Amino acid sequence: MTSSAISASVTSRLCEIVGAANVASDFAQLATYEIDRKLPAAAVRPGSSEEVAEIVKFAASEKLALVATGARTKLGIGYTPSCYDLALDMTRLNKVIAYDPGDLTLSVEAGVPLAKLAQVLAEHRQFLPLPVPFVNRTTIGGLIASGVDSPLRQFYGTARDFLLGMEYVTGEGVATKSGGRVVKNVTGYDIHKLMIGALGTLGVITRVNFKTFPMPLATRGFIARFPTVENALEMRRRIAQSALTPLTLEIFSPRVAELFSSDAASHYERAPMPANVISNTEWALTTGYAGNERVLERFANDLKRMAQESGATGATTLADNLPPAWARKREFVPIALASSPATTIMKISVPPMRMKDALAAAQKAAESSNLGWAAMARGVGIIYFAILPNDHTEEYRERVANATGATQEACAKLTGHATIPWAPAEWKHTLQIWGPPRPDAAQMQKIKSVFDPQNILSPGRFAGGI
Amino acid sequence: MDSQLLRDLKSLLGPEAVLHRPEELMLYEYDGSVEVARPNCVVFPRTTAEVLAIVKLANQYQTPLVGRGAGTGLSGGALSRKGGILTVFSRMNRILEIDIENQRATVQPGVVNSDLSAAVAHAGLHFAPDPSSQKACTIGGNVSENSGGPHTLAYGVTTNHVLSLEAILPTGELIRIGSSALDTPGYDLLGLFVGSEGTLALITEITVKLTRLPEAVKTLLAIFDTLDDATETVVDITARGITPAACEMLDGWTLRAVEAYVHAGFPLDCAAVLLLEVDGVAEAVQQHAEEVADICRAHHAREVRVARDARERDLLWKGRKNAFGAVGRLSPTYYVQDGVIPRTKLPATLRRINEIGVKYGFQIGNIFHAGDGNLHPLILFDARDEAQFRGVVAAADEIIKFCIEMGGSITGEHGVGMEKDRLMPLLFSEADLDVMRNVRAAFNPQGLLNPDKIFPSKKGCGEIHVRPLPLTGAPSA
Prior knowledge:
The structure holds two protein chains of two kinds.
Chain A lengths: L1 E2 L4 H11 L4 E2 L2 H5 L6 E2 L2 E3 L4 H14 L3 E4 L16 E4 L6 E5 L4 E5 L4 H9 L3 E2 L12 H7 L6 H4 L2 H4 E8 L4 E5 L11 H5 L7 E9 L1 E2 L3 E9 L2 H12 L7 E5 L3 H5 L2 H6 L14 E9 L1 H17 L4 E5 L5 H7 L1 H6 L6 E6 L5 H14 L3 E7 L3 E7 L5 H20 L3 E6 L18 H11 L15
Parallel strand pairs in A: 1-3, 4-6, 5-6
Antiparallel strand pairs in A: 2-4, 7-8, 8-12, 9-13, 10-11, 10-12, 14-16, 14-17, 15-16, 15-19, 18-20, 18-21, 19-20
Chain B lengths: L2 H11 L4 E2 L2 H4 L15 E3 L4 H14 L3 E4 L16 E4 L6 E5 L4 E4 L5 H8 L4 E2 L12 H7 L6 H4 L6 E7 L5 E5 L10 H5 L8 E8 L1 E2 L3 E9 L2 H13 L6 E6 H11 L9 E9 L1 H17 L4 E4 L3 H12 L1 H6 L4 E4 L9 H15 L3 E5 L8 E5 L4 H20 L24 H14 L34
Parallel strand pairs in B: 2-4, 3-4
Antiparallel strand pairs in B: 1-2, 5-6, 6-10, 7-11, 8-9, 8-10, 12-14, 12-15, 13-14, 13-17, 16-18, 17-18
Helix pairs in contact in B: 1-3, 8-10, 8-13, 9-11, 13-14
């Protein structure tokens, strides 16, 4: 563990801003803010966006690097911060500011846990279609800043598609906003979109406005098993070319069955996997859908037919969209992380019909380096490819670096890209976490300079060394 | 204009691709808005390389530069407010690649919106954003303005359908952002550039997503005897979580203007109609259409008609999409607003708009995207009359201020442009605007590209420029 140190005068100024009870500087408390074995010198818990602005302004004047945190479930994404003086714990900003169920719009503070928000929305039979990994703990700010996606993107898209506006504090401590609270709006630049997935390098998100959605009436699930990946992808193609619009669509590699029946998986979902639904020797396609009785029947019939035409060895219609398999597919990342001492997860993105080549390239790269792997591919062309080394040694590091490098090269040729959102902390500097250098890196840097000229916000975590 | 610059442009593009005589320039001093601004010359590049060379000349001569598609915009975005070079993309109108299996297309910016949908219809696909001007407007313009349309209620606006851009920054850098795969690593530059109203870059190539056409469509026309019944219906449809593919409203006055022009069979004696469309899998569409019709009846719809076939459906939509043209036959000038309100506030807002019309003595027609709360009050006036001209600006401002009081916004899809820049401080603080100005300066440091748009000058409120406009075609809404 390394940690930075700050002077007593800095601590006392922070206490002035938020009150002594909301400044932590003892080791036990700071240990919970660890990022890749780095600890901050202090953790500050602001209670309002004004306090956030004060703290950032002060940090900028003192050149203190700060990382905004929520539930601290996804701080491992990106490179290790080059400096980490202050943790800005946003969890006291936990109010639902406005919710208008009649208009299906919502304004919440960044520290609101997604699970708490889900309860508020459920009272009106509405929801945010963001069942992201760590869903039971994650905060709104964290899910936006980390840019994670969810199985429901198949139908609803990502947060970008229903984010209406945002308030945030720039790296100079200026509280500012973009967008609004209405569902259609082209007033001013969409700065809020820049904040998605930026890992807090452009601003500290304080408030987020969303469009909400009515809960689907009745839902069902469908799982089909296939001898090869080609069969499973063929079924995806058939669904994509049909009139069916499923809510979720994921393809699992054979080893996923083993991961999903592990102890790690039961941590996220206590109910056991139904028997014979997925197997250790076959690929599987899982899809969830919603609608009235006639629509559900149509889906069941069409899916069964498409599965047969695609060469399925078996298929099961599940009575509910949230059977054990679904919680597990939402939590694929944490389950995979717990399944090896040095899990390294690539996020591969290619046009959907190139998933076959991308999967083949990643598989070949892993296996030629003697590495275990498991993959979950979303219907839209996103693949989470988990490399599962048996050990944490230097030898494995080198193998993983080779495998990920080769996969990244192959994906570029497929007009796609592959990043490495999750990897062991001490391996990161030898991996291309954000993929090969991008041609638009200079444009990214221009943006960073506008929002955080002193480079104090999450320095070094982002693409291009930002 | 510098005659050497003109010579340089002519030798670059050929003399036929450069216009500079006053009678030629007059055609380019308008768009679909009531704004007027004349460029010093108009150029028609054919290739990205030519656009790049134009940008370099603009830098060399320190001349303003504005991009333009079909000129159907409604906020003056494609007008050259400070003269200079107007770059019209109408000759860069090739569809470069269609990838049916991956549902993507790559186009030049001058491709007409509906031409792309027509080119992929054989595969059961379309480009979902459908501004009412879609038979004329270009995809480059759609990207610049982040255009909407009736069906964006369910399908999302332009920004939800763009994957990648090739663009030229005003500094002369050719950049490529996004990719044909989703979630390109790095900041979401696409999200920033789409809808930046031509102030950050000239776009030279666009890759978009193509959307599968629905298997079944039902189009309904609900007829109401009071405006309140129609607006309450929209509130109820929204609150019940039903998202029709489209939910458009026309008030009685507008309807009569449209009927006289289009002969779609709209009733002449009602207070308002809702044009509703539901689509999707056949088994869902039937039920959703019945649900929607029931809600209309519960709110005292006099009649709910269902289009029996494609011809009837097209006729109903023809009425909607040609409405602005129809109104143009009745008045020498009209002023279209684009305010947005939370949908629960529709009844109160429509009542207020009527009061404002009475107060200022203007006929105001309402035809708009009710489902997403995006209003288009059309204020009829004669711009040759100085007093009317001032009155219309005051009335329009009063409407917009009411939208903001309701928690809304000043523009839902037409853009800020040179029309609403002075209204931006009603929504944004000086700090908010400064951040946006700094973003613009990062890409457009000298302000050569599309100057004096979106952001108000810091010197205080400017005068709004409204002049008589000869109304021909039907601008988008």
